[in-house]
Amino acid sequence: MLKKTVRDINLAKKRILVRVDFNVPQDKSGHITDDTRVRAALPTIQYLRDQGAKVILCSHLGRPKGKVAEEFRLTPVAVRLSELLGAPVLTTSDCIGPEVEKAARYLKPSEVLLLENLRFHSEEEGNDPAFAKQLASVADIYVNDAFGTAHRAHASTEGVTHYLPSVAGLLMERELSFLGQATANPDRPYVAILGGAKVSDKIAVIENLLPKVDRLIVGGGMANTFFKAQGLEIGASLVEDDKVELAKDLLNRGGEKLLLPVDVVVADAFSADARHQTVAVNKVPAGWRILDIGPRSVKKFRSVVKGARTVVWNGPMGVFEFPAFATGTVAVAKALAASDATSVIGGGDSAAAVEQAGLADKITHISTGGGASLEFLEGKVLPGVAALLDK
Ligand code: ADP
Ligand code: MG
User: Fold this and answer.
1) Atom in ligand 1 nearest the alpha carbon of residue 196
2) CATH number at residue 358
3) Are both 166 and 183 inside the same structural domain?
4) Residue 220 contacts residue 347 (beta carbons within 8 Å)
5) Which among 316, 211, 340, 201 has a CA at the least distance from the CA of 261?
6) By the 8 A CB rule, do 23 and 148 touch?
């Protein structure tokens, strides 16, 4: 379903409540260690300012659990945002109440106000209607640009839409368009690559994508459960015994579509400096564990990616946090980077792996929402998206 965006409405002189995702990582002294999320919101903020709108930003930060907590104040984010915009960013010490109402009333066209952490109120996550109404009361229009929280029905993502005309921001639009294309009408051949630790985390994604894709590559720890379903010995590898039957069923249903690794890197312990060797999938020594895919698998997966027009990737091919077992994941990242297919990455760890490898700018779209992108790939309707006006 296509949603209205900031481009579809008149914004001049209007007060716009914008839900952004400023949930940035910080070190112990409150220094922002990665401002990607702040940067990701800039196109929408800048667009609104260019249109002469009065911009009122709101976000959550961390888990203050419904109470005011100094370490979760958005002040450092306001400072960073102001630097990036090259313009002042006003702040308030709460996200609702008289101070906010006054600040919103006196806001001039193109000015930016950042409200304090939404989650200082338990009503935010509780999606309390009175809280949502109060939040909405300072604005004329609501814009959701926080894809990363759109899978949650909170007051600032769903509740407010009952009180204001609601549209998508530019980042949200981008996420919906690329993830939507990847799930609805992809250019073919369409290849999905799924990895990560557990089958159970990704069952719904596999179920949703299997009928849609031309090829489904399974790697990472979750491939082990499929190996076991094929009757292979997997030593001390991570496995989900209660998912072996499901894996058998998926192997039957998937047939030729489903591709598994043909060789793996096994280690004698789960550690960065473990002894390791590459073996065929039917030669895993007893007591050893699979921590990465091997070079023959990489070659096979690479050739599949090469022929694809659309590739969706979620979940690393191995324990990429240990450099010795990051090779498979980095190789897949490189294959995506080298391909002219539309490449879409969902999932926090897969995105991190691509950033780490320095290949992020060669990928068509890296989703900013880990959990949200996963739910999207599962075919679920995200409440924060459903609540926006249809085109
Ligand atoms: P994403 O965040 O991209 O959705 P997941 O959270 O599902 O990915 O999975 C990432 C985790 O899977 C990583 O921490 C990685 O170490 C782990 N993993 C990948 N392969 C294996 C393996 N063979 N054995 C154990 N853990 C693995
Ligand atoms: Mg993860």
Assistant:
1) 9
2) 3.40.50.1260
3) no
4) no
5) 316
6) yes
Protein residue with least CA distance to atom 25, ligand 1: 221
- Residue 356 corresponds to which amino acid? Q
> What token pair was written down for 391?
């085109």
Mean pLDDT of the chain: 96
- Give the chain's domain count: 2
Catalytic residue (one of 4, 62, 126, 198): 198
Fill in the DSSP letter of residue 148.
Answer: G
Confidence grade of residue 1 (pLDDT, cut at 50, 70, 90): low
Question: Which atom of ligand 1 lies nearest, measured to the CA of 202?
Answer: 7
pLDDT tens track for 86-129? 999 999 999 999 999 999 999 999 999 999 999 999 999 999 99
Q: What is the pTM of this model?
A: 0.91
Find the Cα–Cα–Cα–Cα dihedral 189, 312, 318, 196, rounded to 10°: -130
User: Residue 337's domain spans which residues?
Assistant: 179-377
Q: Which ligand is nearest to the CA of 198?
A: 1
Residues flanking ligand 1, CB < 6 Å? 195-197, 201, 220-221, 238, 290-291, 314-316, 318-319, 321, 347-350, 370
Q: Write out pLDDT tens, residues 294-334.
A: 999 999 999 999 999 999 999 999 999 999 999 999 999 99
